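Researcher: Here's the sequence for the chain we discussed earlier.
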Amino acid sequence: MSHPAGLERVKEGRADDAARRILHVDMDAFYASIEQRDNPALRGRPVAVGRGSGRGVVAAASYEARVFGVRSALPSHMALERCPELIFVPPRFDVYRAVSAQIHAIFRHYTALIQPLALDEAYLDVTEQWPPYGSATAVAEAIRRDIRQQTGLTASAGVSYNRFLAKLASGQRKPDGLFVISPRQGAAFVADLPVEKFHGVGPATTRRMHGLGIHTGADLRKWTVPELRQHFGSSAQFYHDIARGQDHRPVEANRPRKSLGTETTFPHDVAEWDRLAATLKAIVSKLAAGCAQKRLAGRTVTLKLRYAGFHTVTRARSMAFPAADECVLLPVALEILRSFFPLDRPVRLLGLTISSLVSYEDRSLPVQMGLFEQTV
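Model: Thanks. This is the structure I predict for it:
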């Protein structure tokens, strides 16, 4: 069997892995680009999606805004300090979801093996689908062309033989770019890369690696799995593999949701129990409605508090059975909140997540009834 140029089988990694064709498609400044598409007055100007006053944060930034250091999750007041000409527009999530549905319909034209990561990005396995197109790179080009023609937006794509490298590749030529990392190139590409650029290595892990003298993929490659396990536990094998350009994880189509959550940022810091409890009740109500809509229930409830200064703490409780009803979730959530009192300092943000999810249709576990009572 012949293989596309630059994607031939090599000894690096397992043969079946080297034969895979994985794409990572990532929309360019998705929310902000939609706003610029729909409002010509915003084109070519620094745009941030989010609330531009009070305790607002940037949800997304156009590339014109990123030049000034404006990024998602940046507090709005700091974004305006960096870019006084920044234009804030309120988010329109119904529009973003509709465009995302268009994009995923394009993906499905090329493969059924799609693993969404967010509204604006996904992994695609085109191992079995690329031959009619000549190469996996040609499939990526066709997808990018269809996205542009059907939505008026641009996407960047990475092509490689595993998920880790495809994700790295998609960021190499943003915006509106395409980059290929072949099996022959994979290990060398990773060797020169700073560990903070690795998808899956967060800020805390980066600091720990730097403290151990691990700054690049080549540094990480010097460590054995047992040595890495002493410092990074169950993640040791993953770090060992990616340092060598290996990632055996499959693209998981219809990947089950792991958690549901929602949160509220207060206009001013809050320390009073009554106000925090009332806000938490509203959050639980919204979360329970989301569980009902998605036909999900969960066993673990996690409360998040963010204080002034952005210090964040979480505490969790696990229930005996999966639950989805507000009258079940609220007492658990309030119990966790009460455990934080007396507060060390006022609270800036309050959030709640439910995880260890099961589908209501999965009768292998008893589900606490409530919102689902009317369906049986």
